[in-house]
Amino acid sequence: MARRRGGRRYQFRGTLYFGGSCRPNPGRASIGFVLHDDRDDRVVEEFRAYLGFFPITSNGAHYKALIAGLQHALWRGITHITVRGHSLLICNQVTGEYRVDSPWLKRYCDRVQELSSQFESFEVEHIYFDDNSEARSLAREGFYNTIIDRSSRVEREILQGCSDPESAREYILEGRCDGYHSIQFILDTIEDQLPNSYAVVQEICSDISDEMGRSCKLQNNKSMAALLAIS
Q1: What is the mean pLDDT of residues 173-192?
Q2: CA 143, 147, 153, 155: dihedral to nearest 10 degrees?
Q3: Residue 9's pLDDT band (boundaries 50, 70, 90)?
Q4: pTM of the entire structure?
Q5: Long-range contacts of 113-118 (CB under 8 A, 24+ apart)
Q6: d(CA 206, CA 212)
Q7: Within 13 Å of residue 88, how many CA atoms lie on the same side as its CB?
Q8: How far apart are CA 167 and CA 71, in angstroms?
Q9: In the beta sheet, which residues pair with residue 34?
């Protein structure tokens, strides 16, 4: 699939290899991606992350890897991107060749579509398992990498994005696709500094719990983060 859009002055092409890993499936998950600058075929980023203890399927892990990779590509100023993964299901769902029947995977797929619309062009290529060895290796290593980005830049972004209850609602519903640790840090930051917005977030979690018919004990931000991530 290829999409082209106009309006940007600079042309910066990149290639993203992505992959996810689960133990078992569903179970604990981690993600990895490799981002290349196509101008000189240089690797500009290798990323791995552990998603937490809540259960997630391998398909969900692949989607989260793709979402994280697209976010980082945008942050780096890439305007044209080709994404490559060995999951035929995810690749064909993103291109529209396959339907997305799962409501959870649809949320991830919608997030991919939202991010992909910000590139001048966006292409998806399915590759063989062995041709995605770097991203797969990073995903496996992610189980041992539990570092959370708690930098002041990230905190400022959260405070700006959640400055009022309605903004917080949109921020949380968008951000919950991006992984367990980011969500927990968002919740911790809002709870500490934006009490009015935090009340809305608690309401969102309660509503989701009711919709899913789950008897979740939302006693802390860890349990809330897990609910948001799998819903």
Answers
A1: 77
A2: 100
A3: very low
A4: 0.74
A5: 115/67, 115/70, 115/71, 115/74, 116/3, 116/70, 117/3, 117/5, 118/74
A6: 10
A7: 2
A8: 20
A9: 17, 46
